[in-house]
Amino acid sequence: MRKLLIVLALALALVLSISLPVFADTSQDVTVTATPSFVTITNSPGTWAVGNAGTKIFVDTFYYANPGGGTTPPSATVLDAECHFTADTTGSTVDVDLTVTWGSFTGGSCDMTNSDSDGSNGASTYGAFCWYSGMTYSGKVVVKSSGSSAMLEDHSAGSIKWGVEIETRTNAWAGSSASTSTLTVTATAS
Question: Domain containing 136: what range?
Answer without folding.
Answer: 60-189
